[in-house]
Amino acid sequence: MNKLFKKLLITATAILSVICYSTTAAFAAGFDVNNDDSVSVNDVTFLQSEISEFTDNMYYDLNNDGRIDVNDVSFLQIEISNQSVENNTQISISTKEYCKNVGDTFTISVDTNNDVNEITFTSSDSSVAKIISTEKSLAKVKVNKVGNATVTIKQCNKIITTKVKVEKARCIDLSEWNGDIDFNKVKKSGVTCVILRAGYGKDDNQEDNKFKEYYRQAKNAGLNVGAYWYSYATTIDAAKAEVRNCMKTIQGEEFDLPVFLDVEEYRQAVLPRRTLTDIISTFCDGIKSNGFESGLYSAKSMLVDSAYPDELSNKYLIWLAIPNTSYSDLPPYVDIHQYSWNGKVNGIPEKVDMNYIYNLNC
Predict the structure, then answer these.
(1) Which of 134, 34, 43 is nearest to 83 (CA)?
(2) What is the pLDDT of residue 82?
(3) d(CA 107, CA 132)
(4) Helix%, strand%, coil% for the chain, nearest 5
(5) Nearest alpha-carbon partner for 8 in 48, 57, 64
(6) Are 187 and 223 in contact (CB under 8 A)?
(7) Which of 3.40.50.1820, 3.20.20.80, 1.10.290.10, 3.30.390.50 is the CATH number of 169-357?
(8) Burial classification of residue 222, based on how many CB atoms lie within 10 Å of its CB (0-12 exposed, 13-18 middle, 19 or more buried)
(9) Given this structure, which CATH class describes domain 91-167?
(10) Which terminus of the chain has a lower count of CB atoms within 10 Å, N or C?
(11) Among 130, 197, 195, 203, residue whose Cα is nearest residue 166
């Protein structure tokens, strides 16, 4: 026997001796080389014997490299080892049901004894619970709408599921006029989201004086954060300038909620509906082009009487101020409902605007 081949064969046999194989059913055509209707360590032994006789039977070229040699033995060993790992895979999760609020992001962690095969995560309804990233045994999930979804986790032939129940989010919106705030108390009160005024208008030095402070403190308290920009724009050019000014303030920040254009000035209400609709679209599209989700905040009367609500709601999230109105009486396109201007929240000394978030899918 060729000395080099003998050395390779001894090495392959040594590798085999330290791997614990389980007998498996034939899992791929051609791997049952001894024709005993199973693929196991016996096929490796058989193949080693055949190769030692310098066979030229291409049936044994398992790795399809055009040669019959010790590499085919190694290939068969690896395939059997992988199949053994797959057949003995066990996966589990600690939480069978997650109860979250719209806007929340959470992580599903899987315990597995298999570090070889990929774990896949799928959601039964991505509009409710969207899988935004995966890494080995972890999946990050964002919940975007009131409803229920099931996340299915699969590794090899093992499947487990977890339920995700999503409720409306309690949200407040804030500006510098709200003064000093204890955001930890706000969080403990049951509020999960805040939308902060970033600034206003198209001119420099119009950032909200509390924006950076509020942003930092709200993030540290574990709240989901969004922003809004108060608009004075009455032309397309002014709307573009407001986009630029807004981006100077928010660039580099990470938001859990969209960036909204706040439209409520009388000078805007008296514009032609086409003009105001185009101003809103210009701002929202400009924000989107910079990588942020966007939407519109306004009063119901202004949106309905001064713009085209159906057109805007098909493209952007709609945050509407309709105080003292129940959810069942809202227009169907409302995603966020500002239901009170006189709310009281622990941690905030003065009255505050109150909102419910039902949907964050654009």
Answers:
(1) 43
(2) 63
(3) 10
(4) 35, 30, 40
(5) 48
(6) yes
(7) 3.20.20.80
(8) exposed
(9) mainly beta
(10) N
(11) 130
